[in-house]
Specification:
The protein starts with about 35 loop residues before the first helix and ends in a 6-residue tail after the last helix. With about 325 residues, the protein is an alpha+beta fold. The strands form five sheets. Strands 5-4-6-7 form a four-stranded antiparallel β-sheet. It has two domains: about 170 residues, Pdz3 Domain (Roll); about 120 residues, no CATH class. The protein is built from 13 helices and 13 strands. A hairpin with a 2-residue loop joins strand 6 and strand 7. Bound molecules: zinc ion. Zinc ion binds next to helix 6 and helix 9.
Length: about 325
Amino acid sequence: MKLRPGLLAAALVLAAGLSACGHPAIESGSPAAPPAARLDALNAADARVAEVSWTLARSNADLCPVNRFRTGWSLQSASQYGDALRPVAEARYGLEGDLPGILAAPAGSPAAAAGLAPGDLILAVEGRPLDRGDVGAASAYDGLDANTALLDAAAAGGGPLDLSVRRAGVVRRVVVQPVAACAYPTQIELTGSFRSHTDGRHIFISDRMVEAAAGPDQLAFILAHELAHAVLEHRTQPDVTGPRGAGNAALTLRRGLSLSAEADADRLGLYLLARAGFDPYQAVAFLPRYAEINPAARFPQANAGGVYESAPARRRALQPVLADIAARRADGRPLIP
Ligand SMILES: [Zn+2]
């Protein structure tokens, strides 16, 4: 996968593959915090995001323009970490070089159904050994990317994935049955700023935005808004994002999305999260909380991600949507706008 790092603020994104939902090698958190505590914080955020992201992707597969057979797992490798965190990650998860380890296996996902869990290391797929790469390498993603691409290719046909997996030194065979889900994997960006966005192929959420969400419903508000942009194909429509084409991506990102595109993503996002079983009322409660935490959100904003109404105005605009969702539920009508 090529992320065109120049387009991404500070290039802090982990170049992870389609299956992955990892975090960058940049070492986050207070530099004074011990590595184990920093790794814990990263992994907790990864697990939260993986769970919500998977539930949204799976539950809305029928609405997404691009689907893939996916396992729901998030992957990591020893080599993606810098020197301080790598030994801790290796010891805790049995990671080795570029080999993909399970970072998260969300409840209800094919990965979880197959019994995969953090601490499992994937050694081979369909009898083909994965490349462990240069075991001493730090902050390197290419090897994990290549292995992830092999796993994705094996899953693409929809058939069961035959894996060789090591856990606590014991190698066993694990068969995973992928299912169709929206094709946009989610990645955490360690920017320390409030931001979430999509490039039409991935969904990105900053570490601070993950912290800002009080629970799964509020995290679903943020991620479903981005999934709605992907469903509506806002990043490829000339009228909302500028001229079509990869060559114009930088322009697109600078301009952001229009006010109406953002309002549409807010609205559709609520239906998407309701379809996935999240509580729309709890989800919308993110907006007042966000305005409390981030004073800029109390006013209309224009930034690289888009042009937004103030958080209170966004909340007001969603009241009819909440009412429509409640009415549809009461009548047993489908939750489609
Ligand atoms: Zn948006």
